Design the sequence.
């Protein structure tokens, strides 16, 4: 297993502030031959409002050990002064476990956008009609399970008709058993604190990959490009307090309204009748 990481010294200092928001995700097109991925560690600089990519880490592996090692190296690079309040990352169990182990006091959340993409793909696999998929993906419908009390999520899954049973079986298997509910449900957390998506890092990864004319560049080209990008971000962060660049306000994610799931009640409609009504609608 090989791990190589780079960061501009001036940007590393941004990780030393208490209570930061980190974004962590891997990208692949820009990775030199012989490596599996480039993991980018981004921080939201509250002073400038800039989302700053700090560390670029190449790794030949995507195991829990490789993630633990790269995070450990970053902790050491900050002289053990990195104390994030929240971390948003892709839904990858090995990465999430490593982040939670290294930063036990941080809130580790999976990207809501990635979760909704996965739910959409599951609906298509379950042959749920397109109009019902569109309703399900509307804000305040399926994403409501991310803001209700943890104990109520399983109860909410029972309120569905037969054609959705396969989908809810997938939901329970993936989002209640494979992943801990704490990594996607934000009930009880302050919306001003919580970042719900990896969108800033997703945008940056597209920018990063666009800097390379062909996939899988040489190591020399890779290092030259990330050095140039890091220098650009050093100037960008410095220009905001000097008034040369307007401070960018942080995007606020509007959460759906939480509600209480009613206790189980006896339905006075037979299941077959209910299915017929649902199909007719």
Sequence:
């Amino acid at each position: 297993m090989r791990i190589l990481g780079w960061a501009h010294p001036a940007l590393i200092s941004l990780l030393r502030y208490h209570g930061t928001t980190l974004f962590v995700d891997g990208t692949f097109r820009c990775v030199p031959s012989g490596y599996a991925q480039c993991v980018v560690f981004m921080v939201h600089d509250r002073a400038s409002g800039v989302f700053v990519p700090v560390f670029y880490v190449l790794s030949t592996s995507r195991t829990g050990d490789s993630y633990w090692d790269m995070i450990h190296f970053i902790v050491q690079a900050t002289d053990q002064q990195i104390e994030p309040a929240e971390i948003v990352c892709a839904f990858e169990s090995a990465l999430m476990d490593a982040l939670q182990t290294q930063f036990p006091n941080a809130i580790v959340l999976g990207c809501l956008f990635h979760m909704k993409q996965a739910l959409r793909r599951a609906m298509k696999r379950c042959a749920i009609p397109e109009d019902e998929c569109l309703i399900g993906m509307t804000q305040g419908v399926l994403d409501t399970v991310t803001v209700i009390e943890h104990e109520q999520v399983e109860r909410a899954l029972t309120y569905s008709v037969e054609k959705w049973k396969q989908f809810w079986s997938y939901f329970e298997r993936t989002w209640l058993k494979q992943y801990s509910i704490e990594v996607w449900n934000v009930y009880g957390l302050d919306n001003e604190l919580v970042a719900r998506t990896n969108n800033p890092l997703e945008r940056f990864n597209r920018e990063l990959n666009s800097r390379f004319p062909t996939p899988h560049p040489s190591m020399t080209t890779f290092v030259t490009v990330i050095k140039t990008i890091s220098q650009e971000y050093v100037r960008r962060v410095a220009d905001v307090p000097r008034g040369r660049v307007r401070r960018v306000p942080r995007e606020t994610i509007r959460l759906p309204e939480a509600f209480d799931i009613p206790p189980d009640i006896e339905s006075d409609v037979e299941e077959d009748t209910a299915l017929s009504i649902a199909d007719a609608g």
